[in-house]
Amino acid sequence: MLIPGLRRLIGLYAVRENDPVLAAAQFQALARQILMLYAFLGLNAVGLAYAHYGLAPDWIVVGPPVVLLLAVGGRSLAWIRAARRPLQGRQAFARLRMVNRFTVILGLSASFWASLLYGYGNSASDMHVVFFLTITMMFCMQCLAHLRSAAHILTTIAVPYCVYFLAIGEPMVQMAVVSYVLVLIGSTAMQSFAYRDFCHLVDLTAENGRLALTDMLTGLPNRRAFTARLEEAVAGAAATGGRFGVGMIDLDGFKPVNDSLGHGAGDAVLREVAARLEGAGLGWVARLGGDEFGLIVEGDADLDAAGRRICGLLGQPYLLREGTAQIGASVGFARFPEAAANADTLVDRADFALYHAKTCRRGSAVCFAPAHEAALRRDAAIEQALRRADLPREFHLLYQPIVDAVSGRVEAYEALARWQSPTLGAVSPADFIPVAERSGLIRDLTKAMLAQALDAMHRWSPDRRLSFNLSAHDIAAPESVDGLTAIVVASGIDPSRIVFEVTESGLMRDLGDANRALASLKALGVKIALDDFGTGYSSLSYLQRLPVDRLKIDRSFVTRLTEDATSLAIVRSILDLCRHLDLDCVVEGIETADQMLLLRSVGCRMMQGYLFHRPMPADAIPAFEASAAEPTRWPGPRSEAA
Known about the structure:
Elements: H1 2-11, H2 20-52, H3 58-61, H4 63-83, H5 89-117, H6 123-143, H7 148-168, H8 171-212, H9 223-240, E1 244-252, H10 254-261, H11 263-280, E2 284-289, E3 292-298, H12 303-314, E4 318-319, E5 324-325, E6 328-336, H13 343-360, E7 365-367, H14 370-388, H15 391-394, E8 395-404, E9 410-421, E10 425-427, H16 429-439, H17 442-457, E11 465-469, H18 478-491, E12 498-503, H19 504-507, H20 511-524, E13 527-533, H21 539-545, E14 550-553, H22 565-581, E15 584-587, H23 593-601, E16 606-607, H24 621-627
Parallel strand pairs: 6-7, 9-11, 11-12, 12-13, 13-14, 14-15, 15-16
Antiparallel strand pairs: 1-3, 1-6, 2-3, 4-5, 8-9, 8-16, 9-10
């Protein structure tokens, strides 16, 4: 009993090194208050010395205050320097232990000096000494309240001096000391409560800080934590000449899981993805938001091998309560310092590699390479030219016919944007459209091209329709849809002559928002076509939930139509589906007469491709229609891709 009790007693005066977060908070609190302690102590000491000058010997009155002022002045400078760079861990513990030691030295020295002055002069001078000890001691204890061990040291130092003054003091001094003792007891109790609250607040703050850096769904670090960790990695590698890799991971086919199985299943998939990535032990993993994850791979690891492993792990089936889900993953890597020398640019490079993977090699990993640097510069030049472009003057439309291959009638024309930049020359749509989408400029481009197409329709036959492509960004927000609606209404064109084409990949962003946007356009009276049908992930669920009027079968099924029975079977199945759902169907990419005849034999009528005509300017349409009276008059096979 004696030894444990003694240990507990000693513990009251020691800095406990079991909570580095608390120690850091104590240091920060002391850094704000200890300068006030030193200033108050120094001023009171000067006042006490001044009051006793001439009453007590000079060596007692002058010497100790000078030493005291030098000591607190030096410590004040040290604290000012330390406060500029908050300490953590062992450094914070060491500083707190130093505070304890200095509290012992300063408390004993000041008390002993004041007691030496007691008895010189009259009763008023003696009361001044008592008040110096009591008031100064109480203020110092308040300043040290966040370091309970230091406050306990001061309390302990005060006890023998209270006994001393009770024994030798006059009645007024004794009454003052008794009052001080009572205040000291109450103050110690209040400080204990305040310290407990302080510790609780530090715990809550630390927990809130942890939560602020944690993704609540998966338990992984979040984007803020990822950014901080990446900056630390960059600083560390730059200082040591090290290397590391940054990975951006995006799930392929995750949106259909939410759409078909529900958001609960989607959340379960994300948790399982997080568990698989952490369990792989490839590096430091974070969830950046949605279905995007970040990875920091320390050292000179093989990023291609890491990417293959990630794609393999995340491509395995997910057994859920709602059913089995199957998704994939695309990964983009960038290595420090080859790809970039700062955190922001590293992320941009990894993002570009991810974009390249999703565009060209979906379901695989791509590491940023010099060729990507050239593509980035090209895209940057295109974006700058786009931002400066006079859209109505630099952009124009070509029109490719959609024909009824049985009757020979032209049903519609698809508008295709072309750009002749004064600085870059002719820029391919395959280059400028992705840049316009990533930069957010696609909405302005869409509006300008739609207005141009509707103006051209005034010179067409009233039974000709316009097929116009919309980006996912064009239907992502209500104000974008309102802008398209306003352009259609202002044109005076019958909305039923307009077909807006959207792609499956564009709808994957948010099926709910897409449904609302397309329903709003349908209310205007336009038709909706689902472009590139069959190349997405969940086409049938889209047909069930979206207000679609027409399907456009992707050209990839037509290329090998005459040699591949599977392609023909897929086209036949889609045609049957359209007949049962009362949907129009258009087949794209017709290049040869054999393809046309084979498609006609399975019931396809609406076709589009180079066999019928290349995209043409608006003023070439009348001549084309005059030559297209019969299906047998379509040109022969073409070798160029539609």
